[in-house]
Amino acid sequence: MAYAVKLLISGALLAFLLHRFDVADAARQLALVNPWHALAAATLYASFHVVNAAKLQLVIPGRRVRSILAFVLVAQAYSLLLPGQLAGEAVKAYRLARGSGEGGRVVSSVAFDKMTSLVALLLTTLGGLLVEAHRFGNTLFVALVAGLVLIAFSSALLALTPVRRLTGSFLSGDGWRGRFGGPINLFLDTWTRHVARPQTMALSLAYGLAAQLIQALATQILGAGLGIELSFALWCVIIGALTVLLLAPVTIGGLGLREASLVGMLGLFAVTSDRALAVALAILAFQLLITVVGLAVDLLVLRNH
Fold it and tell me: How many domains does the chain contain in total?
């Protein structure tokens, strides 16, 4: 039922966009994009996933980057087919952990990787916000700082010895608690090991920042091909805000929410609705391409994994 509701929300948002805006005009705008702009943007969007695979390999060193890239592409495919981006992360953690015998360790590493990605996202958004401070009030700035503080606090809390001891004492013995105790304790031990390694955390953050900057640059180049002249700092804020919005599992793969949000945000900077919608359609087209590639990898490459 929940899936049906989210599908209905996506449908309602798409119906609103079709009624409110000229989608055909947006498609015509998209068709006029300089091929070099489109090629450069597509290359950068693809590089974004490669960098994320290299980032995840830092905390799962037993696997090659190309092997992890396959799971990253599969996760991206399912993030478009399932409600919310976090669903894709769950698929990635499950597929990487399956058959490894160390499910708690792999899941913890994927969660740690996602945590540093969120920190990198908030930092790039905050950087863009500071550069373009005259365009924004204090509310977004306070929200970003609060998000960073909350993530730092939660990460430190999971690594505290009393928390691990309390969890270990509760999840012990026979029955369901004993069955869950092993994987959860392994999750916490692995998390503590990652947090206790400043070099690993710094490298993970560096990769995360690079990935976010690549994504913002790709969208800026795509926007420039459509005649949208916004600063790189503004694109960092827009892509950061959009990514946070898409974390909410209220639609299927962000369908409808992505397009409506981009039209609304770009409209604040005097970007016409047809060009804003063209950007959203281009991003959706690339994600559909990644979905096709991810599903092909899942069926042909990872069929035994």
Answer: 1
Q: Per the domain annotation, does 224 fall within a domain?
A: yes
* Predicted pLDDT of residue 1: 45
What range does the domain containing 192 cover? Answer: 2-300
Cβ atoms within 10 A of the Cβ of 233, count? 20
Of residues 242 and 158, the one with the higher pLDDT is 242
Cβ pair 282, 33 in contact under 8 A: yes
Element (H, E) at 289: helix 273-300
Q: To 5 degrees, how large is the angle CA 212–CA 213–CA 214?
A: 90
Domain-located, residue 86: yes
**Are the C-beta atoms of residues 58 and 200 closer than 8 Å to each other?**
yes
Summarised one tens digit per residue, pLDDT across range 144-175 is 899 899 998 988 887 787 766 776 666 565 55
Residue 135 Rama label (left phi>0; alpha psi -120 to 50; beta): alpha
DSSP symbol at 303: T
Domain contains 305: no
Q: How far apart are CA 51 and CA 66, in angstroms?
A: 11
Calculate helix-pair angle for 176-195, 103-131, nearest 10 degrees.
50
Which residue's structure tokens are 């708690």?
A: 104
Maximum Cα–Cα distance across the chain: 66
- For residue 241, being part of any structural domain is answered with yes
Mapping DSSP to helix (H, G, I), strand (E, B) and coil, where does residue 83 land? Answer: strand
